[in-house]
């Protein structure tokens, strides 16, 4: 069966890394949603949330950090293309069962390549910022389950993690 | 019992975020080690590793991305102090049981504040770079278990995740 | 009268900051002009200007700083969109009545959102650079009256500060 | 009278701009406080403040923007030295008499050169961020009176704007 | 003969530098190829190449540095326009006759202005990175012959260094 | 003779790139001088110089670009350490025999590692900026002979290119 020949697109035939040519790809509206979590002690979560109720700061700062990081994705990830992002939003929800916080980032662009990396980067930096602001009280916090959950636009069309056979519930 | 009063150090009494004053802290040698993983299909791991054997590229690019990100941590994480890092190294090891790759970042500074965020940021960006370079063949890869595993220097001395009561084996 | 319901566009219904979605806005040619001033001792102004006659440097460096800052506006202002600026120019004129310098920045883009922030940022950084280069002789310099003076393109059409009822002469 | 010979320190004898040599200056603790304001319609101020009461966002985002800008001052202002800032804080207070908001930035370093530019830059970017977030409802807002109000440490010792003969009340 | 009146486009009539207005230029596909070299001791070249055979690192890191620098060209070169690069690739070839390495960078964009500066910047930074990684063994390495070798698209059409009368073989 | 075993310091035993540990190195005053040139048509040189006499701009902008690039060296060159530069200056001299311009950059730091890369980067970016500003009139300009000419401080003491056996006159 010859059809199964996936390739690492960022590596050319001679093995060198390069920023792939997207100039022939269509300019379409593209959206990506990524999600991740930061697990912590129940007490740390309470502190952040009560802090938040009064002050809005840990989660507010994390959202800003995530949004700003999305805009710098191409500076951080070597082979990412610069993209004129048309939207970035970050939602942070508490989850007592972790216990911890779930970060969801949505990015959008009208461009020739997708915005998955921007969403994943936003997610990661929002989590890292929460870690930074709470690390004095809980050094063992863990960032995890950062992954793409949905992707629209571009040649590959609509993709959802939930539809993947082996990935189970996201 | 008055001793249990942990506080979110980046939030002042009025609830505003600020970059805390470290000017009175000792300048000491500080080291941090962070670790994370990226889980993928077994086939993706083989492709990266065989690619790597011949070419050195996915892992090589990810290492560079992690090192460069460590140096920009203070630009990305709003309340982090700028630090004159004296060392950054990234180790990436395959783990067939994930299957996937385990990224370990070590950072060092002689400074007034710790280098945990630099190690965690290096780890995250190395994982994101691996995702970027292999996403064309495996969109469902997941970044996880990013956490501090060791920390030396500074007022709090030597800390190891493995010694924490609830954290189990890292 | 239901029509008066201005809203802070960068804050969503839940109160979280986000980079607003501009993907449905038209791509049109947009221009913005911002102006600001830096007031100083008459002696400082003379020194800068005579320095400039011979050397071209304080004002030349300030112009470069303003232009470069315009290009980084989206990195500095959290909810600004990245924009492919097609023009930035800075004009710096002495004003003996201040005494001081008046900085005018003009920015242009063909895009889905305006370039006001780029013009205002260019203006501010040009003023800050003048402060930096002359602060050894005049620490009390004051930057002021930084505002948008004109805006063309986009849904809101042509807007001029001079036409605003309460703003008087700019 | 030979004593009156102030010089523009960033310009060498040949008239070229350069980053002056601070290597012989003492490493001392240095602090700077800068202040600025953004004037707006009374209605805009109410909207921001009530928004803030519920959500904490405009002022919260502006504080983060100011802090992050302080850390990048040397990238933005051509002849500024990079500095390992040990503290940055931003305070934003409403002032009904403007009407508007007053932004105060405090920066600290243990270094060979002062942190005035960092405080002034933080102030300017916090004001610009407020402008950005409220511009949809009030395009005529004006940023002004950005100046150094206090400076401690370094050869010149303690300086306060309030003590300057011609500057009046700050 | 009035036709010979070339002008420095980044300087306006009053002598001030500005980022020229490209908003009226056509959006076309544009490509640039730049080349440069780094000369070194024969022994250094062997060390890099043998290192490379086993490890892939000096040249791999230099390629990544060149690609990442291309994306930041507009931040580094004051009057360059920001461009949404659609492709960057770097090729590094040994040349025993130098002895040294020859770096070729290719950049591509669909935009209103050319990508020469991006290709030249990529080339320069790849060479500087090689210098950095080998300087401990050969401080006298020299970077040279960095120039544009080909340019396609835009008003001026196809240009090749090899076709220039005085430039001889490149 | 076992003494001849130079090694590429940025590559560890396993072949991976890393930012070498400088934490045990002495903090000393370190200076570096780098030089480079940009060759052009005689007519282009005259245009830049006459432009300069009246306006100061091409060379002025190039100096600023070089100084600003020096401060960002560690962001651009993957394995460079961040350094608190205490001085950067750029001198640009015409040379009719090239014909072209000779750029000399001097950098200084009190730190644990040298400032060669900062001087070389400043030199390269000053040349690239000259290219950018004059490319409309002379596309064939060539940047060359970028190399370290002097280095003081650190373990290796005083080094001058002119003293090197094979390098001849610099």
UniProtKB/TrEMBL annotation, chains A, B, C, D, E, F:
Family: Belongs to the MoaC family.
Location of the region described as Disordered in the Swiss-Prot/TrEMBL record: 1-26
Function noted in UniProt: Catalyzes the conversion of (8S)-3',8-cyclo-7,8-dihydroguanosine 5'-triphosphate to cyclic pyranopterin monophosphate (cPMP).
UniProt entry tagged with the keyword Lyase: yes
Quaternary organization: Homohexamer; trimer of dimers.
Pathway assigned to this chain's UniProt record: Cofactor biosynthesis; molybdopterin biosynthesis
UniProt cross-references to Pfam families, sorted A to Z: MoaC
Source domain of life: Bacteria
GO biological-process terms attached to the record: Mo-molybdopterin cofactor biosynthetic process
Record: active site: 132
HAMAP family: MoaC_B
The organism of origin for this protein: Stappia sediminis
Alphabetical keyword list: Lyase, Molybdenum cofactor biosynthesis
Top EC class for this record: lyase
Protein name per its UniProtKB record: Cyclic pyranopterin monophosphate synthase
């Amino acid at each position: 069966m010859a059809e199964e020949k996936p390739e690492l697109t960022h590596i050319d035939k001679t093995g060198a890394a390069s920023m792939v040519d997207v100039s022939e790809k269509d300019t379409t509206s593209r959206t990506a949603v990524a999600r991740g979590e930061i697990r912590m002690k129940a007490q740390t979560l309470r502190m952040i949330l009560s802090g938040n109720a009064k002050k809005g700061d840990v989660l507010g700062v994390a959202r800003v950090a995530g949004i700003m990081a999305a805009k710098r994705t191409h500076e951080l990830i070597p082979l990412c293309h610069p993209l004129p992002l048309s939207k970035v939003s970050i939602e942070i929800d508490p989850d007592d069962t972790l216990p911890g916080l779930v970060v969801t980032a949505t990015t959008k662009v009208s461009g020739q390549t997708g915005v998955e990396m921007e969403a994943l980067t936003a997610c990661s930096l929002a989590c890292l910022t929460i870690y930074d602001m709470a690390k004095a009280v809980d050094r063992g916090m863990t960032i995890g389950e950062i992954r793409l959950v949905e992707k629209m636009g571009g040649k590959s069309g609509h993709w959802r993690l939930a539809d993947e056979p082996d990935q189970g519930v996201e």
